[in-house]
Specification:
Elements lengths: L2 H9 L11 E2 L19 E2 L14 E11 L2 E12 L3 E5 L6 H9 L5 E9 L2 E2 L5 H6 L2 E4 L6 E5 H16 L8 H14 L10 E2 L5 H15 L3 E5 L7 H18 L2 E5 L13 E6 L2 E6 L2 H9 L2 H4 L2
Parallel strand pairs: 5-12, 5-13, 8-11, 11-12
Antiparallel strand pairs: 1-2, 3-4, 3-6, 6-7, 9-10, 13-14
Helix pairs in contact: 4-5, 4-6, 5-6, 6-7
Length: 309
């Protein structure tokens, strides 16, 4: 890779959140993380910001008897879940249940080893796919702790990601003009109660916690994935920001009919989003499933009755 290309890629680098989830890709959009995981940062691509307008297609993510570990420690222990287009699922559970780990594994985090079971997307095994290849299928992960990227504007980041991902699936794709694309980005930001000027600001730099989460939702709504994983997207939000984030998720669901999985500790986001299914996760597997009323019950009674071994 030329030094100019490497510099370009590094200039587009997008810092991963705590998951440190990145993988090699041939596209220009890049996420980098700490040197302890990777050294050739420009070789590793943004795996989750892929744009697929598949609103008229149905997709299914099926996780079957999944067992996974890290450094010999078993984390996921017989996890089963099927999520289809047009469904909103919520996973709740005590700390240490494996909720966030599940998202990392679905996206292909290289530190976790699947020892048993399958991850199927539209009945095709994806456990051996690289993270960027999973993203090419239309799977998106929204982060709990988005990082700042000095030198990369939010608008340019989204435009480059959108164009790269469209080209990956449609060789005849013709990008919209930068002016038209920025108009769309600014409109989406305004829908999320963010000033249009955020499109010209460096990604997440000096954003408040609520602005970072709203920027994640803006990315989701601009890129239109078909399968959405949101890892504690509600954490750290005040009531106003929570409402805005929930409205953004509902808007995407109504317009694009994706499959959505929300990881959360709290029932409060479900005051604004009505899930079809709520699951309680404990010790690496689902121990109870129900409809939206289960979350209300948890708020009142806690987890104890469901996690007693």
């Amino acid at each position: 890779m030329s030094s100019d290309h490497a510099s370009l890629d590094m200039g587009k680098a997008y810092m991963l959140a705590a998951a440190h989830l990145i993988a090699e890709s041939k596209i220009s959009m890049v996420k980098i993380t700490s040197p302890q995981y990777w050294t050739n940062h420009h070789e590793y691509a943004n795996f989750s910001r892929h744009s697929f307008s598949n609103k008229f297609m149905n997709h299914t993510l099926k996780i079957q008897n999944l067992h996974a570990e890290i450094d010999g420690q078993k984390i996921i222990k017989g996890f089963d879940l099927t999520i289809k287009s047009g469904e909103i699922h919520v996973i709740m559970g005590p700390n240490g249940s494996g909720k966030s780990t599940l998202c990392k594994i679905v996206m292909g985090h290289p530190s976790y080893e699947i020892t048993e079971g399958q991850i199927l997307f539209d009945d095709k095994e994806i456990s051996d796919l690289e993270p960027n290849e999973r993203a090419n299928l239309g799977i998106f992960l929204g982060f709990q702790h988005p990082f700042e990227i000095p030198g990369v504007t939010l608008g340019n980041f989204l435009r480059q990601a959108h164009n790269a991902n469209q080209k990956a699936t449609n060789k005849e794709f013709t990008p919209a003009s930068p002016v038209k694309f920025m108009q769309d980005v600014k409109a989406e930001l305004e829908n999320l109660k963010m000033e249009a000027s955020f499109a010209a600001r460096f990604v997440n730099e000096n954003f408040s916690g609520g602005e970072k989460k709203r920027a994640e939702i803006a990315q989701m709504n601009i890129l239109k994935p078909n399968t959405i994983l949101l890892d504690e997207i509600d954490s750290g939000l005040d009531i106003d920001a929570l409402k805005v984030v929930a409205e953004g998720i509902n808007k995407n669901f109504q317009e694009n009919n994706p499959a959505i999985l929300i990881i959360t500790h709290y029932q409060r986001i479900l005051n604004y989003i009505v899930p079809h299914h709520v699951h309680i996760m404990h010790d690496g597997k689902i121990v109870k499933s129900g409809d939206h009323k289960l979350a209300t019950t948890l708020e009142e009674t806690g987890y104890e009755q469901y996690i007693t071994n």
